[in-house]
User: Fold this.
Amino acid sequence: DNKSGFKNVTYDLQSRRYELRVQVGGKRKHLGAFKTAREAAVVYARTAEGKADAAAQQRPTGADAAAIAVRAAEREGLLLIPADRKDSTTGYKNVTHNVEQSGVRKYKLQMQKKGKRLSCGLFGTAEEAALAYARTPEGRADAERLRRPAPVPRTAAAIEAVQQAEREGLTLVLSANATGYKNVTVDQRKSKCQLQVRAAGRQQTIGLFDSPEEAALAYARTPQGRADAEQQQRRSAATSQPSSRPPSLPA
Assistant:
């Protein structure tokens, strides 16, 4: 509703002058009265607040800012980590879109640290927020996991499990753990691979298997496994990495 056309400049009917007022230290400060709005605007442009506003005005926004963030990630050898949740509205991990946020910075970066969800900043685009995450140790660790190749099956039973997954059109869900597959651990006491999944708020053991691949196949057949496989395939496509399926098997 500013009729002068310039920030912090208003017309005073009583004095018939353009008043310049700025917010400094939580207080409204009067910087003078001028014959024209342009004169007041020039004075404001010379202040620290005016220079900051000018810099913000010249900063790229929207598609330009997003493209700059993507190119910056490429130059720095970083990976913008795709979302691991199907309901993500931004497509990037830990980045949410707050439609109720005022101003142009509507994308929030949040990270889990020491059991607490911490806000790490607001950004104009999802890509800028994703770039900020990619620069963190957590973002770099996620990138390393995404780039890690699938484990190579070492036994006949393991090879058969991988081939059976391919015949059924299933994807074995990868992980950065010791076995290479999600929810699959090694039970040292029984020299077996154990598959555990979380259901109804509890960790449940599905079974013991001779190889990680056999356990991973059992998980791939579950609803959770199919959902995780879809997310894995989306991440693989988003990061332009090779397919997440296990490598070609020997004849």
